[in-house]
Amino acid sequence: MPPLRPWASFPTPIAHRGGGTTPTDSSFRTSDQASDASSGPVAPHERLRFAEFVLDRLSNGRCRARVGLTWRDSEQFAGQCEGLASQAGELRCAAQACVNALGQAVAGGMGFELLGVKAVRAFDATVVIVSLATHGEQGAQRVVGSYLTESDPARGAALAVLNATNRLLGNRLFMR
Predict the structure, then answer these.
(1) pTM of the predicted model, to two decimals?
(2) Please, which residues bridge with residue 56 across strands?
(3) What is the domain extent for residue 161?
(4) Do residues 128 and 119 touch, judged by C-beta distance below 8 A?
(5) Residue 71 lies in a domain
(6) How many domains is the chain partitioned into structurally?
(7) What is the CATH number of the domain that holds 156?
(8) Which pLDDT tens digits describe the chain residue by residue (176 residues)?
């Protein structure tokens, strides 16, 4: 069997399932080119950042989660949610708090609905998976995000929400 050739050595772009072309087009950068580039299309401060997470277990058998997000180091968005103080309840509460903070960040231009959240044991670690429905200018769609955690599944649920929405929000916030 002949050795595999690197992407850059193919003479013409090859179409793949998602449409478009493989990384042989001019927009693709190799890892060497990416590290040499002085600036990409989005500066690091242009990204919505996870700044704070607090989960309080209340004496009445409930929990309260608070998620703080920042953008451009000057704008802050906070979301809160209260729910049942069980393993599943804390995951849902944390994810919903993040969804609430995202709702503030997009200022009504896009809506998010938490469909489900679950922690599963896989690959000798806990993986938190969230499913969201989004509603916006481009119609409705479902997105899924995950986060690998060892110590704090509730915090992982909030981060999984951000992982589910990062591509959708990147363009929206950058165009402000």
Answers:
(1) 0.72
(2) 64
(3) 44-174
(4) yes
(5) yes
(6) 1
(7) 3.30.160.270
(8) 444 444 333 333 333 333 333 333 333 333 343 334 333 343 444 678 899 999 999 999 999 999 999 988 788 999 999 999 999 999 999 999 999 999 998 887 789 999 999 999 998 889 999 999 998 877 889 999 999 999 999 999 999 999 999 888 766 555 55
